[in-house]
Amino acid sequence: MIDHPIPYGHQYITDEDVEAVVEALRSENLTQGPRIAEFEREFSARMGCRYTSMLSNGTAALRLCAAALDIGEGDKVITTPITFVATANAFRFPNAEIVFCDIDPRTYLMDLDKLEEILKASPKGTYKAVVPVDFAGYPIDEERLRALADEYGFSVVIDACHAPGASFTDSKGKVHKVGSCDYSDFTCFSFHPVKHIATGEGGAVTLNDPDLYRRAMLYRTHGITKDPAMMTRNDGGWYYEMLDLGFNYRITDMQAALGISQLKRLDWSLARRAEIAARYDEAFKGTAVRTPWRGEGIVHAFHLYVIQVERRKELYDFLRTQNIFAQVLYIPVHLMPYYRQFGWKEGDMPVAEEYYRHCLALPMFPTLTDEEQDWVIEKVLEFVR
Ligand SMILES: Cc1ncc(COP(=O)(O)O)c(C=O)c1O
Description:
single chain, 385 residues, alpha/beta, Aspartate Aminotransferase, domain 1, 13 helices, 37% helix, 14% strand
């Protein structure tokens, strides 16, 4: 019997993390200091991209992409219904029309065949951006997405809030890290506590294009620049110019210090998550529990371990009586009252809706002990049998 609550996800904070934050607190800069650039350099090196902009959260990262791509009223953006509402909202804020594309029944990611059908049904250039989500840590086929983007003329923004450290293999056998932006325009990450890297609140966007990077950096701080090459004049050392309407999406130095320290453990976290996933896979083999799909050439980041079961609500309620706080992720976004006002309704995304009826994310975080996991497995099996 496990006598303490087991959550579905949890942060892991070490003494080194605490010391790093304390050091930042005692330093000259609480924000806009050197730790932010250091976190950006380290993150770019790990993800394999040219630029990273560290931000206040993952939603800000997505919203910044919309701003840098000049998305606004009348533009159409395609995303998936199986995500946190932030993905759609970030593009809805500037009044873009959000179009949902149903998911693949195996991976639960945006179905690229269905995406192609949507694209084919309208003239090229109808959609300004496509924003798939590497749901649960499973990377989308970015190579195919890039081919579609080149044919139909849209920008690719990957919501990889679940997937730092994931990778996929292209048709030539080359491995690409999620976040490298080898095929995408932007990749977005979140450092919310349940994620692989926890900074309390925090996020990042990675990219390779210098112009988009300049724009992203501009929007991070009120649309303000001090770069003489971008200014219309220069009155002196104090002088800056506001070139466009921007935001304050900055991360603090305390958060960056925590992020640098946490990033050092990303590979350990991924390895431990893979171990936990393999134990679940093995335990549920041959039972009524449907386990996550494993694609070829994929490194799954396992932010979540989502099963599909009958009588999901009963299992969710039963597990809670056993101290197991499994979670339902996600309620399809197109069925949120806000999005229903645009005409979205039940039946529009049949695969996503079927997924939602049966999904349950079991506890998955690197410090989950074997004993705790065995308890979860025992109780799930007790229920399904
Ligand atoms: C898929 C996805 N996109 C976007 C976000 C938003 O990130 P944040 O909470 O850091 O704003 C999250 C985090 O909850 C997420 O899971």
